[in-house]
Write a structure and sequence with these properties.
alpha/beta, Rossmann fold, 6-stranded mixed sheet, 4-stranded antiparallel sheet, 10 helices, ATP-binding, AAA+_ATPase, nucleotide-binding, Peptide/nickel transport system ATP-binding protein/oligopeptide transport system ATP-binding protein, P-loop_NTPase
């Protein structure tokens, strides 16, 4: 299979947290992410997996500069994100967005869903006409499977799955090319998880999106991702195409992660067939 042109390249990424030193208590440095390297091709779904505390979310947030890296390079379309000013980074928000795990806390309880989805257009869009923005929001609500009346609802009036759909609509309203999906379905019921993942697959085809999928649910990774990197104690220990990783894991930590999949053999047979057809 031909490798796709890179959209995102991460080189030597590191994050070190350190307490302030004092005379009585010297500061202790903690390395959360150490020398992480990977690239994501245009149109690809790249999985980042690992145990809790492995550094997955930290990597995702450093890519978006919600957390500043200690060192390393982050290149988006060949452009260094670490060299961008805050103003330049704000402009890039049109192209790079995130869907959070906790859709409840991601929304302001005092604003309607429609207002919050349209906020990005109001701030960053070229056409700030209220009628235009409302029309775009209504179209996006329909695209993610929510009725028009959800525009006037408040976050607490939506179920978890409905809020996650609204979160996806908010991320897509600016027509980005790259989405960080940070455990986007981990808080949802099994049936709702499948609906959201299939929605993301459809949206990826329609809008030509590239995904970084951060997850610990390996069933979903097997179904959803083209390639996978395994993170352990802040380091990437293995990267390979999804099928290859699940068939022939090289690292002991990866083998332990895969062994936690109770439905491994039966499920992966379906995954192989799906990917062979694609």
């Amino acid at each position: 299979m031909m490798e796709k042109e890179p959209l995102l390249e991460v080189e030597g990424l590191q994050k070190v947290y350190g307490g302030k030193k004092s005379f009585l208590m010297p500061g202790k440095k903690v390395t959360a992410v150490k020398d992480v390297n990977f690239h994501i091709g245009k149109g690809e779904t790249f999985g980042l997996i690992g145990e809790s505390g492995s550094g997955k979310t930290t990597v995702g947030r450093m890519i978006l500069r919600l957390i500043e890296p200690t060192s390393g390079k982050i290149l988006y379309n060949g452009r260094s994100l670490r060299d961008l000013s805050k103003k330049e980074m704000v402009k890039l928000r049109n192209e790079v967005q995130i869907v959070f795990q906790d859709s409840g806390s991601a929304f302001n309880p005092r604003q309607t869903i429609g207002e919050q989805i349209g906020a990005g257009l109001k701030r960053f869009g070229e056409n700030k006409d209220d009628g235009y923005i409302q029309a775009q929001v209504l179209h996006m609500l329909e695209r993610v499977g929510l009725r028009a009346d959800f525009y006037h609802r408040y976050p607490h009036e939506l179920s978890g799955g409905q809020r996650q759909r609204a979160g996806i609509a908010r991320a897509l309203i600016l027509k980005p090319k790259f989405l960080v999906l940070d455990e986007p379905v981990s808080a949802l019921d099994v049936s709702v998880k499948a609906q959201i993942i299939n929605l993301l697959i459809d949206l990826q085809k329609e809008f030509e999106l590239t995904y970084l999928f951060i997850a610990h649910n390996l069933d979903l990774v097997a179904y959803f991702c083209d390639r996978v990197a395994v993170l352990s104690k802040g380091e990437v220990i293995e990267t390979s195409p999804t099928i290859e990783l699940f068939r022939n894991p090289k690292h002991e930590t990866t083998k332990k992660l895969l062994s936690s999949m109770l439905t491994l053999d039966g499920h992966l047979g379906e995954v192989y067939q799906k990917r062979a057809i694609i």
